[in-house]
């Protein structure tokens, strides 16, 4: 008995393919498929069903409505015939049970003409006129850092603010006078994120050295380190009601820390690229992250899992900002700034026109949203309508190159009346509203058709 030689499945499959090819090769070119009408019709039907199957029923419904409208509006004879038919099939007055004297609403014969008008789609509602906002102007420039100023945070009492830069130093400035109050050293690389606790005398910082530090502002010393990130940490946020810190960075994760025990409660995994921005709030979703993978994710803090992923952006999302009074947030990408409604992340509208890498955003209770770009441009928007009422090109510090006109972070103070920006020319700039401006000197250049195109 001969021993059967065993072959791999891969070899057997290719042998079968070769045999099939040899068997049918003589028939090649005999059948002219293009001349076969039945085959062509079948091929088109398969292609149409494969591509448009989900909307077939809509086409049929639309066709039926069109035929119905044509029939009703074809001639007066049809209308008269339809009225007679309606009268014939309607029961006699008083024969219906709900047409009694105790009826809440009197029964009326259906108006065919009225039904005919309902086939016409309703007009879109008028777009509201944007609220007038005073233009913003630069009123203070602060120098002191020796590198790009990457982040800023304002103290809850609105007396001072802190900045972190590429010179590895955190500086604390007096908000009223702009004078330097304190310098904190300890990071060994660029400081990329800052947060001040509203309930404790703590300042939190993170940087490209993978470190997350907690500073005790009574002693101006580091009292805690939070170890766990595998790469640079780019953003951080403090939960408004819980003793919880959230950090995010280049290792594509966001981490949730117990502020006191330093325990890593959750590691929020799901993004496939750098997580550039993280914000947190007391209501659901409690954590929102924006990433270079072009997505925005909404997270459930209790479960430590993603509730929703928003994939509308086409390019990297570098900034996410919460509205201080409305249950909404915005995300920024080079293609568009998009507004969303919580908790499901329902899309509201696009804010188009800031065609550069948008590094940062801020919004105040008055509904003024401002976005800062990599080329030093700032756009001011009316939150409700998406109207861009002002554009500013930030001036670089004397001695700097024009290419150093990038804006890396921005924040409003707690009153919403002053805007602090940190920039690539190593300066901190403070803007405020122009008190002399009025609706007559700076009118709203409102074009509804443009706003409508942006919105939809």
Automatic annotation (TrEMBL):
Gene3D superfamilies: YVTN repeat-like/Quinoprotein amine dehydrogenase (2.130.10.10). SUPFAM superfamilies: WD40 repeat-like (SSF50978). Keywords: Repeat, WD repeat. Transmembrane segments: none annotated. GO terms for biological process: mRNA splicing, via spliceosome. WD repeats lie at residues 142-183, 184-225, 226-267, 268-309, 351-391. It comes from the Eukaryota. GO terms for cellular component: catalytic step 2 spliceosome; precatalytic spliceosome; Prp19 complex. Belongs to the WD repeat PRL1/PRL2 family. Involved in pre-mRNA splicing as component of the spliceosome. Component of the PRP19-CDC5L complex that forms an integral part of the spliceosome and is required for activating pre-mRNA splicing. As a component of the minor spliceosome, involved in the splicing of U12-type introns in pre-mRNAs. Identified in the spliceosome C complex. Component of the PRP19-CDC5L splicing complex composed of a core complex comprising a homotetramer of PRPF19, CDC5L, PLRG1 and BCAS2, and at least three less stably associated proteins CTNNBL1, CWC15 and HSPA8. Interacts (via its WD40 repeat domain) directly with CDC5L (via its C-terminal); the interaction is required for mRNA splicing but not for spliceosome assembly. Component of the minor spliceosome, which splices U12-type introns. Within this complex, interacts with CRIPT. Also interacts directly in the complex with BCAS2 and PRPF19. This is Pleiotropic regulator 1. It comes from Clunio marinus.
């Amino acid at each position: 008995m001969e021993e059967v030689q065993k072959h791999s499945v891969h070899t057997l499959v290719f042998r079968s393919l070769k045999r099939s090819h040899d068997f049918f090769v003589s028939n090649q070119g005999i059948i002219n498929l293009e001349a076969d009408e039945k085959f062509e019709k079948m091929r088109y039907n398969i292609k149409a069903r494969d591509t448009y199957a989900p909307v077939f029923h809509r086409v049929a419904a639309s066709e039926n409505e069109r035929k119905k409208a044509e029939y009703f509006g074809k001639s007066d004879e049809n209308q008269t015939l339809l009225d007679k038919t309606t009268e014939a099939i309607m029961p006699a007055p008083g024969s219906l049970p709900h047409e009694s004297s105790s009826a809440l609403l009197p029964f009326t014969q259906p108006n065919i003409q009225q039904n005919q008008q309902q086939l016409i789609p309703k007009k879109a509602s008028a777009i509201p006129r944007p609220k007038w906002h005073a233009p913003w102007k630069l009123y203070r420039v602060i120098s002191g850092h020796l590198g790009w100023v990457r982040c800023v945070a304002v103290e809850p009492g609105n007396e001072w603010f802190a900045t972190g830069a590429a010179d590895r130093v955190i500086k604390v400035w007096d908000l009223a006078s702009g004078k330097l109050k304190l310098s904190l050293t300890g990071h060994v690389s660029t400081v990329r994120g800052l947060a001040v606790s509203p309930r404790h005398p703590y300042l939190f910082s993170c940087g490209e050295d993978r470190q997350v530090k907690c500073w005790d502002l009574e002693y101006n010393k580091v009292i805690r380190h939070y170890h766990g990130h595998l790469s640079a940490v780019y953003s951080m946020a403090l939960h408004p009601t819980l003793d919880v810190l959230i950090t995010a960075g280049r290792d594509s994760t966001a981490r949730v820390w117990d502020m006191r025990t330093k325990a890593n409660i959750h590691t929020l995994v799901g993004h496939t690229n750098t997580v550039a921005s993280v914000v947190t709030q007391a209501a659901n979703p409690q954590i929102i992250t924006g990433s270079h993978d072009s997505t925005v994710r909404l997270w459930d803090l209790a479960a430590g899992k993603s509730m929703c992923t928003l994939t509308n952006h086409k390019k990297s999302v570098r900034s996410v900002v919460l509205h201080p009074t409305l249950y909404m947030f915005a995300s920024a990408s080079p293609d568009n700034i998009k507004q969303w409604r919580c908790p499901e992340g329902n899309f509201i509208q696009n804010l188009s026109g800031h065609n550069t890498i948008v590094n940062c955003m801020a919004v105040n209770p008055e509904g003024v949203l401002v976005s800062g770009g990599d080329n030093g441009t700032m756009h001011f928007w009316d939150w409700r309508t998406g109207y861009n009422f002002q554009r500013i090109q930030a001036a670089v510090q004397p001695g700097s190159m024009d290419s150093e006109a990038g804006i890396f972070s921005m924040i409003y103070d707690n009153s919403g009346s002053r805007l602090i920006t940190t920039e690539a020319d190593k300066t901190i700039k403070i803007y405020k509203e122009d008190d002399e401006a009025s609706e007559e000197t700076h009118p709203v250049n409102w074009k509804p058709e443009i706003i409508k195109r942006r919105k939809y």
